[in-house]
Write a structure and sequence with these properties.
The complex is a heterodimer of chains A (178) and B (278). By secondary structure, chain A is α/β, with parallel strands linked by helices. Chain A has one domain: fumarase, CATH 3.20.130.10. In chain A, strand 3, helix 3 and strand 4 form a beta-alpha-beta unit. The model of chain A has no long low-confidence stretch (mean pLDDT 93). With 278 residues, chain B is of the alpha/beta class. Chain B has two domains: 100 residues, Dihydrodipicolinate Reductase, domain 2 (2-Layer Sandwich), CATH 3.30.360; 126 residues, no CATH class. Chain B is globular, with a radius of gyration of 19 Å. The two termini of chain B are 14 Å apart. Classes of the chains: A alpha/beta (178), B alpha/beta (278).
């Protein structure tokens, strides 16, 4: 049974989710990956309001004519581990990506009642069908790495790390320590 | 002597960039459908990947947003001659055109530390090989870096033997975990020199996942490694399961009396390659 969630997300919803729960997310999310994270972290930029926001680690392919976006799957979250705890301290609540997180990020998720959701890596064409609109709102010079505001409807995700310390990846090879 | 004009090479390269990124290999589509998983999450992920391949082909959009750095293999017959301009310029012009016309992502930075995007996904990584006859064959193998980053090379020593190679392959896959978007395809190179070993691993990713090494000794090793990887438990998307890898191929080459180089090139299920001839 997939749970329906919306952004901006409230703490009750965050606490109700457990690692392994499949969710369908509707609302605004913001793309940011390596280069944008470096700027948000080092320059203190806030290209979108961080409070209760959801960031999607993604750099889409260009939108073909008549479509809001090109293919838009998750990139590897671990590369953003260095920056994530500081951004959560500044209000960011939800991270969407793929793959394991560092012990520091896992601890920050618990501390700030955050949430880490995984999109299926490689399902980028399929995920593009859940994106209703996409607009570049910061760092246009970064191309695929610019920050985009997306409106998504029933975006299919899996709860990868919950605010109780649970982690889906603990079920497989790599242990998740909190 | 057969003459091939650079405009033909540009045209073919552009077309191959687009088709490689949109169409999933039939053997991989089949392997996704045949994977035996009982856990609901694992089944859900495999279902999404199969549906993704259908959507990409239907909408003519890339199956993954990471349309990769373009790795281009050229097989040039020794009786073929390129006319009208530079060969590598033609390949790069084809890559730039294919990535623009196909709405593919431009993912290449000009300098590894200063990191400014080149804007057209060039330069390609080009491997040219001289072969007998008049053939001119181009293979475009776009490589995403979620999985490329998880790859590794190690200069083992002869005493490490078969067990050393096995342990290194498993260690590399274990360390990659969920990051390279399992189920993965694994290319293994064993032997040669440092640089050739890496190229063997890359070329192993071009092989049919259902094929086996011509030498029974290595064919058996391929099967053993694939089984062991699928006992690691990562499963689809790393959420647990039996399908961590859909295929594993090994390419080998003679090596030095003092060495046993081994390379593991990891690729996601979107192991892309398209070939054409002029």
């Amino acid at each position: 049974m997939k749970k329906l969630i919306t952004t901006p997300i409230d703490d009750d919803t965050i606490c109700s989710l457990r690692a392994g729960d499949e969710v369908l997310l509707t609302g605004k999310i913001y793309t940011a990956r390596d280069a944008a994270h470096k700027r948000m972290f080092e320059n203190g930029d806030e290209p979108f309001p961080f409070a209760r926001a959801a960031v999607y680690y993604a750099g889409p392919s260009p939108a073909p004519p008549g479509r809001p976006t090109g293919s838009i799957g998750p990139t590897t979250s671990g590369r953003m581990d260095k920056y994530a705890p500081a951004l959560m301290a500044r209000g960011l609540k939800v991270m969407i990506g793929k793959g394991q997180r560092s012990p520091e990020v896992m601890a920050a998720i618990k501390r700030y009642s955050g949430l880490y959701l995984a999109a299926v890596g490689g399902a980028a064409a399929l995920l593009s069908r859940s994106v209703l609109s996409s607009e570049v709102i910061a760092y246009p010079e970064l191309g695929a790495e610019s920050v985009r505001e997306l409106f998504v409807e029933n975006f299919p995700l899996i709860t990868a790390a919950d605010c109780h310390g649970g982690c889906i990846y603990a079920l497989s090879g790599e242990p998740c320590e909190v | 002597m057969k003459e091939i004009c650079v405009s033909q090479i540009e045209e073919l390269t552009a077309r191959l960039c687009v088709s490689a990124n949109i169409n999933l290999e039939p053997s991989i589509t089949a392997a996704l459908a045949e994977a035996e998983e009982t856990a609901p999450l694992a089944r859900s992920v495999l279902g999404q990947l199969a549906e993704n391949a259908r959507v990409a082909a239907e909408l003519r959009i890339p199956m993954c947003q990471d349309t990769g750095m373009a790795v281009v293999f050229l097989e040039i017959g020794q009786d073929a001659r390129v006319t009208g301009g530079g060969l590598y310029d033609a390949v790069n012009a084809g890559v730039a055109r294919g990535y623009e016309e196909g709405f593919l992502r431009k993912s290449v930075v000009a300098d590894p530390l200063r990191r400014v995007n080149t804007g057209d996904n060039t330069p390609a990584v080009i491997h040219a090989e001289i072969v007998p006859g008049e053939v001119f064959r181009v293979t475009v193998a776009p490589k995403g870096f979620g999985s490329e980053n998880m790859s590794a090379l190690r200069m083992l020593v002869p005493a490490d033997g078969r067990a050393g190679v096995r342990d290194f392959v498993l260690e590399t896959v274990r360390r990659a975990g969920a990051n390279p978007c399992p189920p993965i395809i694994v290319g293994v190179g064993v032997g040669g020199t440092f640089e050739q070993c890496a190229l063997l691993a890359k070329k192993a990713l071009l092989l049919d996942i259902n094929g086996r090494h011509a030498d029974p000794f290595w064919a058996e090793f391929e099967g053993e490694l694939l089984d062991e990887i699928n006992r690691l438990g990562f499963g689809p998307a790393g959420f647990g399961g039996r399908t961590t890898a859909l295929g594993l191929r090994v390419l080998t080459f003679p090596t030095h009396i003092a060495g046993l180089p081994a390379a593991v090139n990891i690729s996601c299920h979107a192991t892309r390659h398209a070939t054409g001839e002029l």
